[in-house]
Amino acid sequence: MAKLYFRYGAMGCSKTANALMVAFNYEEKGLRPLVLKPQIDNRDGDRIIKSRIGLQRECEFCNDYLDGSVEDVLEKTKNYDCIIIDEVQFCTIEEVLMLPHIVLNNRIPVICYGLRDDFLLNPFPASEKLCAIADKIEELKTVCWCGDGATCNARIDANGNIIRKGKQIELGGNDKYVSLCKKHYFSGETGRISSRFLSN
Question: Which of 48, 57, 72, 200 is a Cys-bridge partner for 44, taking CB atoms 3.0 to 4.6 Å apart?
Fold first, then answer.
């Protein structure tokens, strides 16, 4: 039975690499995955998904397939064997609400990867909705500089200091964010990570 999956985790937990590997596995078996990302995410090029370890592939934009009526969305997605969405936290609520219709009517799995919370520990609207409607929610693990599990995405300045205010969406990678455990998120200690930034 097809399901709607939400696989979330702090930055650096290999969400994108996981998404790319799942797409490859489908293709290796002669199946057709539809790989999507929100158009706002242009860090690696308009229609490119790229992981931190260098894996990458071409993709399509979410709005090209998920915007419109339910009937339109089902028609546009009916010839695929699964849908994989990277950076799903940047989707609109309306796009996320189309996903159960695809699962139930086209009977294909939809696998979403993204952040659950922003740098202030507030949920992204799309991620919050996914937590409510997903059939299966899975956390992908990564670690803080101290070795404990990292669950917080801290936004940092050029000196590695944590930033505690600002707009919810600000695109960036290792230059703007670090993953921390709750203890070090609240204490503001970025440990060895800050020295790595200062040496680059």
Answer: 48
